[in-house]
Amino acid sequence: MKEEKLGILLTSYMCHCQFEKALNTHTLKAYRRDINQFIRFSSSQADPFSKENIQAYIAWLHTDYAVRSVKRKMASLKAFFTYLTFEGELADDPFSHMRIRLREPSLLPRTIPLATIDQLLRHVYSLQSIYNKRTYAYRVVVRDVAVLELLFATGIRISELCSLQPNDVGLQEGSIKIYGKGAKERLIQIGHQNVLHALRDYTHYWSADIQTANHFFLNRLGNPLSEQSVRCMIKKYCNQSGISLHITPHMFRHPYVKHMTKIFSLRLMDSQAQAYPDARRKTRGACQLHRGGQNRSSVRPLCNRKRFS
């Protein structure tokens, strides 16, 4: 099969994914990139869908990519072949005759120490006292404070943060409506006043631009803030504050989940102790073990820090 024919089939498949399956733009971009890579690899093959060609492609992927990337590319290819089989372009799905088991190493997620987050936030807050409130530089710092506070306090994805609309942010109710993966909607409650204060400051200084653009987080041109801009912003402040750790926006999700899990587990143990008085002593011992010998006052809720001046 010629490369031009495969290109036509790919275009048809991408239309199916976009309009019939309503996939996210990032998913569509990844599918197109992965399948185009297979098409280029198979351009010299008489039968690109043969078992031998697919096995050679997998072996080639292992030379340049990690196991997780290879698994993702295989998933993209399997979905494409399933579509071609359903549409009658393939008589048989070649993956149905193959056993592909890729073992991915189980690694702990990269997290940001709380001391590092505190150092980063303190530095950004300190910049507010340097710039004049009438300057654009001050407005940028106010926006960046709101972005960082929201990332840490809610565990929001960067794509969700950059796609926020003004109506999604309820400052009076202290909640944010998020449209996440799979077109799923969820409501996040903001319980810390520092985060709400940072968001109110941002809406105060950027209110005119927000109304014009009908988007919440904006750049200097009044356009929606991009994911790459957030990454560059974090990298810039890390360099300024002397943080050597490479921090990505996704890493803010892990401290959020970790500390919310700790808070939930402590509350659950206390509830069990109240429900079962006979087991109070055992549960209390488990609580002390979980806290590492710390008392209750030393376990602080998420974002329980003093306001930075």
State the gist of this model.
With 309 residues, the chain is mainly alpha-helical. It is built from 11 helices and 3 strands; from the N terminus they run αααααααβββαααα.
What do these coordinates show?
- This protein is mainly α.
- Helices cover 57% and strands 4% of the residues.
- The protein has eleven helices and three strands, in the order H-H-H-H-H-H-H-E-E-E-H-H-H-H.
- Strands 1-2-3 form a three-stranded antiparallel β-sheet, with no helix packed on it.
- The protein is elongated, with a radius of gyration of 25 Å.
Architecture blueprint of SSEs:
Blueprint: H1 3-20, H2 25-41, H3 51-64, H4 67-86, H5 114-127, H6 136-154, H7 158-162, E1 169-170, E2 175-179, E3 185-189, H8 193-213, H9 227-240, H10 253-275, H11 280-290
Antiparallel strand pairs: 1-2, 2-3
Helix pairs in contact: 1-2, 2-4, 5-6, 6-8, 10-11
Poorly predicted residue ranges: 279-306
Number of helices in the DSSP assignment: 11
Distance between the termini: 66 Å
In terms of quaternary structure, what is this? Answer: single chain
> SS-based structural class?
mainly alpha
- How do the strands of the widest beta sheet line up side by side? 1-2-3
Query: In percent, how helical is the residue content?
Result: 55-70%
Number of strands: 3
Proportion of residues in extended strands: under 5%
Shape call: elongated
Alpha-carbon Rg, integer: 25 Å
Mean pLDDT: 84
Q: How is the biggest beta sheet arranged? A: 3 strands, antiparallel
SSE string: HHHHHHHEEEHHHH
